[in-house]
């Protein structure tokens, strides 16, 4: 037999053993359905908790980013400023380098908004004359704090409202939440690693005699370890898929009530789940986690058995 034929034969045997190891691992899972479901369920919960926190933080961050008023600076003009001068001032501000956009709200528009908000109609009718001033909503291009300070110097400005303090606090909380999500992911990932490692360890103990025979026949450590690696990967892949299913169910349960709450505030915000690429990455990462846990346990057992044989 030529060298090329021998190489192809070894490759075919290697692929056959991988396929056999995968099928055998799935068979072991199906032969112990309740024990397998318990392992997968514990891993899924450990994976779903940090993922759920990360998804919640992503939605909160997206909500904060959609609220343009979080960066806008409100400039209330003096009551004696005529609408024509207010429009001219808006055009002047649009030409500034530190201003991205300017929206003018006239007293009539402000009065209409108050009437639409509900509950103010009778009070506004009692006032008679429109008491609202013109308002400029200025969107900064850079630092909104510096822009707000410069707008206070305008002779037409009566009050400059800058509500960015809450946004800075929100950003701080989001950074803290992101760090917390990573810490939980590390801790619970370690827990999932230990769960799959312990499950594979029990399977190895049950097949100790079979492994001993394979070692006497000269089987390599990679040959012996391979079925257990696939077993751990199967646990991880199933756990990742179950974690995504749990989070999807939670999203469906919360989507409509949250959308209704957002509509009551005039927002179209809706929960956003995992994109297909993100979901695939989660499942693959869970599979790698299971593979790693099984590899660590199987490698330790094989090293220990080799040392005992000496």
UniProtKB/TrEMBL annotation:
The annotated topology with respect to the bilayer is: Multi-pass membrane protein
Residues annotated as transmembrane: 34-57, 180-200, 228-254, 274-302
Q: Write out the annotated subcellular location.
A: Cell inner membrane
Q: Say yes or no: keyword Signal present.
A: no
Stretches assigned to the ABC3 transporter permease C-terminal domain: 183-299
Where does it mainly reside? membrane
Q: Single GO cellular component annotation?
A: cell division site
Record keywords: Hydrolase included?
Answer: no
GO biological-process terms attached to the record: cell division
Q: Where is the FtsX extracellular domain?
A: 72-154
Q: Which keywords, in A-to-Z order, does the entry hold?
A: Cell cycle, Cell division, Cell inner membrane, Cell membrane, Membrane, Transmembrane, Transmembrane helix
Assigned protein family:
Belongs to the ABC-4 integral membrane protein family. FtsX subfamily.
User: NCBIfam families of this UniProt entry?
Assistant: FtsX_Gneg
Function description? Part of the ABC transporter FtsEX involved in cellular division.
User: Quaternary structure?
Assistant: Forms a membrane-associated complex with FtsE.
From the Swiss-Prot or TrEMBL record, give the protein name: Cell division protein FtsX
Organism expressing this protein natively = Vulcaniibacterium tengchongense
